[in-house]
Amino acid sequence: MHPSIKESILEKKDEIVEQWLEEIEQFRYEDYLQNISDSVYRSTNREFVDKIFETVDLCSDDVYERISQYSERLIQLGWPLNYITRGLQSFRQITVETLSNTGDNYCYDIEFYQEIESWIDNLINALVSDYSGSWENTVFSQKMALKELSAPLIPVFDEICVMPLIGTIDSERAKLIMENLLEGVIENRAQVVLIDITGVPVVDTMVAHHIIQAAEAVRLVGAECILVGIRPEIAQTVVNLGIDLGKFSTKSTLKKGMATALKMTDREIVDLASK
Amino acid sequence: MQVQTRVDIHSEWGIVAARQAGRKLAKEIGFGSVDQARITTAISELARNIYLYANQGEISIEEVASAGKRGMKVVASDRGPGIKDVRSVMEDGFTTSGGLGAGLPGVKRLMDDFDIDSEEEEGTTIISIKWLR
């Protein structure tokens, strides 16, 4: 930045800071910041404005470095991005106004505006990219977590496995279900697989189609599929849709399905006390 | 004033959003759990058709009242390729995408009123209503 501009900004620092703190105090009632205590809000504002002034004589690379520690803390504490962008915008406005009022000639220079613009824009860019980076990370890790949860195959007895499905089935998940089901059947040498759809909110034609395909594929590798956890309202919608689930057996609950599966593998659960 | 909810469908998540909005409104209107499931399944079906065949479009849902009856209207509209032969898509088992071919006739059975308007290269609009009994 041009030394003379820098100098006059630093000269007016106290005035700018004072006005800015007043301005930012007003945001508080419009934004989601009401539940933050007064002292925390003030100290964060104070720190924010100090950080802004710290960056006045840095080039853009250093700005990123300096600001990222600060932004990391804000992100962890859950401060909204709104606070940052609005804060910086009003800071720019106040700075330009304050300096224009000094009456010095250079204030009318286009260069002067450009300098201030690029200074503040750099800051906004650095902060926004930190924020969006942290969101992308969150979304990514949640996606991975979801994927891990999406289609587990659990061996419960010899030759019997259960795949509980919870939540919406989209095409990506349907693919995972098919893969895990077939791999699991081979790996565990399962004879019977119970697919539990208690936790699936809606069974439309696509979901039904995927289940039918999965069951057919399981049959091809020599095992048997039982669909369990069909709630009454799901049963009615499936009938309304005219979907034929007659190719494999279905049971209302996992418990009944398990009894059938045991029977199919020539076993049963006996109560020792009654012997 | 009737509140209308509109959901844009341009990814599979749009289908989920439309379904959730539909279930919420159906619950508010007072449909029982079976009808809620019917309505959400119908919305799911319609939204999936939009996503599959037209890539994007919208689902709008609202409460309607007529002749002392209350109900829920679901409108699915897109500017996709349109349906060449409406008569055959309403037949069970007809499919162009390798699916079950139960979608549209299924929706007709799930809902009470069903109206389809489609023009080739222009798009498709499907209006369906479920009445509260």
Describe the structure.
The complex is a heterodimer of chains A (275) and B (133). With 275 residues, chain A is of the alpha/beta class. Chain A is 65% helix and 10% strand. Chain A folds into two domains: 3-144, Globin-like, CATH 1.10.490; 154-269, STAS domain (Transcription Regulator spoIIAA). Chain A contains ten helices and five strands; from the N terminus they run ααααααββαβαβαβα. Chain A has a five-stranded mixed sheet, sandwiched between helices. With 133 residues, chain B is an alpha+beta fold. Chain B has one domain (4-131): Histidine kinase-like ATPase, C-terminal domain (Heat Shock Protein 90). In chain B, 39% of the residues lie in helices and 32% in strands. Chain B has four helices and five strands. Chain B has a five-stranded antiparallel sheet with strand order 1-2-3-5-4, covered by helices on one side. Chain B is globular, with a radius of gyration of 14 Å. The A-B interface holds A 168, 170-172, 201-206, 208-209, 212, 232-234, 236-237, 240-243 and B 12, 15-16, 19, 23, 33-34, 36-38, 40-41, 44-45, 48, 92, 99-100, 102-103, 105-106, 109-110.
Keywords for this structure?
heterodimer, A: 275 residues, alpha/beta, Globin-like, Transcription Regulator spoIIAA, 2 domains, five-stranded mixed beta sheet, 5 strands, B: 133 residues, alpha+beta, Heat Shock Protein 90, five-stranded antiparallel beta sheet, 4 helices, HATPase_dom (chain B), transferase (chain B)
CATH superfamily of chain B: Histidine kinase-like ATPase, C-terminal domain
Beta-strand percentage range of chain A: 5-15%
Largest sheet of chain B: 5 strands, antiparallel
Most extensive interface: A-B, 22 and 24 residues
Gyration radius of chain B (Cα, Å) is 14 Å
Q: What's the N-to-C terminus distance of chain A?
A: 92 Å
Poorly predicted regions of chain B are none
Q: What is the CATH topology classification name of chain B?
A: Heat Shock Protein 90
Overall mean pLDDT of chain B stands at: 89
Number of domains of chain A: 2
Number of helices of chain A: 10
What structural class do helix, strand and pairing data of chain A support?
Answer: alpha/beta
Strand content of chain B: 25-35%
Number of helices of chain B: 4
Strand order of the largest sheet of chain A: 1-2-3-4-5
Number of strands of chain A: 5
User: Which quaternary structure do these chains form?
Assistant: heterodimer
CATH architecture of chain B: 2-Layer Sandwich
